[in-house]
């Protein structure tokens, strides 16, 4: 019974480790495709800072056990980027980057052009 519990716990920790690696990888790639000037315009440090922090978060999530403090700190950095920095960058750049919606050719700066109706 005890070995089944440890096996289940190990499986859960393995899944959690994969989720944290995916979170850090997503944040790193997203930061890499953003424009440098968007970081300054959003007043969110700079692109190199976030690339270094998120790169370290990814490496730490790969190399260390989830029970140590370093992967947790990396997860916090990734979450801060995703919930705070990324929305600010999307606001500044008009939503460009991953998941970018393309407008119609008749879209103006304030939305679709409806011919003066």
Automatic annotation (TrEMBL):
Keywords: Membrane, Transmembrane, Transmembrane helix. The lineage of its organism: Bacteria, Bacillati, Actinomycetota, Actinomycetes, Kitasatosporales. Residues 105-117 have a biased composition (Low complexity). It comes from Streptomyces misionensis. Residues 91-117 are annotated as: Disordered. It holds the Pfam family DUF2516. The chain crosses the membrane at residues 6-29, 50-83. This is DUF2516 family protein. It comes from the Bacteria.
């Amino acid at each position: 019974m005890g070995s089944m519990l440890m096996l289940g716990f190990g499986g859960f920790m393995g899944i959690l480790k994969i989720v944290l690696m995916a979170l850090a990888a997503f944040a790193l790639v997203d930061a890499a495709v953003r424009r440098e000037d968007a970081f300054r315009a959003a007043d969110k440090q700079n692109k190199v800072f976030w690339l270094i922090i998120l790169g370290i978060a990814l490496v730490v999530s790969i190399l260390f056990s989830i029970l140590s403090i370093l992967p947790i700190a990396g997860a916090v950095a990734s979450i801060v980027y995703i919930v705070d920095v990324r929305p600010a960058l999307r606001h500044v750049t008009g939503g460009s980057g991953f998941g970018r919606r393309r407008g119609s050719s008749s879209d103006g700066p304030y939305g679709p052009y409806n011919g003066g109706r």
